[in-house]
Amino acid sequence: MEPTILEVNIHMAYMDQQYLNSANHATVYAMKQKSIFDKNVLQSHAGEVIFKPGKLVQVYANTTDMTMASSRKLIPKWSAHRRVVSQINNSYTLTSLEGFPINSLFYA
Hints:
The protein is an alpha+beta fold. It is built from 1 helix and 4 strands, in the order αββββ. Strand 3 and strand 4 form a beta hairpin.
């Protein structure tokens, strides 16, 4: 027996609500985790680290941290020096020392 259009619509509405509930739950969980992380950072010895424009920084490349290849031992983990241009929330725009922009945001 085929479901009626009303039954299909009810089922689709139920599925949409389930999707919204799960998205809301994921957002609430992420916010809770962020508040715990922020609390731990602020209570740590270093505290919150904020880089001002003009400061020199290096970027850590964590792409090979979880690989077991022996070639990862020879790959440098830190970039060349970069200069902070601006801060956007907890992310930074950087340039090379020569002034060439790096088209990505980097987070602290």
